């Protein structure tokens, strides 16, 4: 992630805002010390990145799911 000095950020604020809006996050530093991280508004927060259960309530699993294709699988593995 790119680090930009605060004085450069002041000079090029408009360009940097456009950069962030395209999804390019960056850090603003003062005297080499990171002060702020600029990210686009639509970027999910770290706690929002969880994917487990994201389709909950949107799909159904048939009751015989564990039996689907049983004969074919048994034929492939010689059972």
Automatic annotation (TrEMBL):
Keyword Zinc-finger: no
Bilayer-crossing regions: none
Keywords on record: Plasmid
Listed Pfam families: PhdYeFM_antitox (PF02604)
Cited function: Antitoxin component of a type II toxin-antitoxin (TA) system.
Sequence similarity: Belongs to the phD/YefM antitoxin family.
Protein name, entry field: Antitoxin
Organism: Sinorhizobium kummerowiae
């Amino acid at each position: 992630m790119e680090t930009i000095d605060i004085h450069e950020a002041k000079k090029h604020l408009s360009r940097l805002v456009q950069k962030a809006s395209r999804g390019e996050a960056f850090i603003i530093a003062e005297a080499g010390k990171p002060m702020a991280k600029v990210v686009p508004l639509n970027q999910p927060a770290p706690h929002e990145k969880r994917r487990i259960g994201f389709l909950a309530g949107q799909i159904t699993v048939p009751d015989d799911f564990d039996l689907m294709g049983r004969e074919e699988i048994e034929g492939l593995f010689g059972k």
